[in-house]
């Protein structure tokens, strides 16, 4: 497959993923509204569930794509591609992009009510704790801080992909898990009120955090390591299978 056809394949995937991703982002907003009143520990628990789950699914898809298309099927190569393609991209999707979005929107800035209660508490205790509390809302890298959950999840996904490379998972489910992981991360940092403007910004952040990394992890990254004269298949959605079957019949020259 030529470079032009690969680019066309990627564009088809991006276009096909967009509706699922937008719907997932909307459900991410619903998710955040449902859990907006839980404790900080509860928000962390949500992230500790959905981020490793996303890593697991990404590892299955990434390693499977490489396993099916690569002539070099040695386990160590599948392991390397699957691990970095899942942990690396899931970190970008679930943590880095949501963190940047939250920073740009100032979501980690305490609300007036939070400031009032903090000042009230500090007067009673004779000292202020606002600076310390704010420092706790930093970049939270799951593969380091929850390495005992995240990294084994990636390894499990790679093992599944290596022995059962045609394992499939509903694309909508993959999007939802990814979006909920990103939503959980934003919730961990969030101290601002959920106004309409804030929710609109979060919607955009969730869409970007899921859309591009999903395609990079599931398609672009694993295919960087395979030959260029292959017939590509979709990563996890029906739209991709239909599109690429048609491209195969037409030699990749047209719709």
How would you describe what is shown here?
The structure is a single chain. With 255 residues, the chain is mainly α. The chain has one domain. The protein contains ten helices and no strands. α1 (3-34) packs antiparallel against α9 (196-223), α2 (40-69) packs parallel to α7 (147-163) and α2 (40-69) packs antiparallel against α8 (171-189).
Rough outline: globular
How many domain units? 1
Number of helices: 10
> What can be said about the biggest beta sheet?
none
Instruction: Name the assembly state.
Output: single chain
**N-to-C SSE series?**
HHHHHHHHHH
Stretches where pLDDT is under 50 for at least 5 consecutive residues are 111-119, 127-136, 236-255
Arithmetic mean of pLDDT: 77
Structural class: mainly alpha
Helix amount: over 70%
CA gyration radius, whole angstroms? 20 Å
Proportion of beta-strand residues:
under 5%
Amino-to-carboxy terminus distance: 16 Å
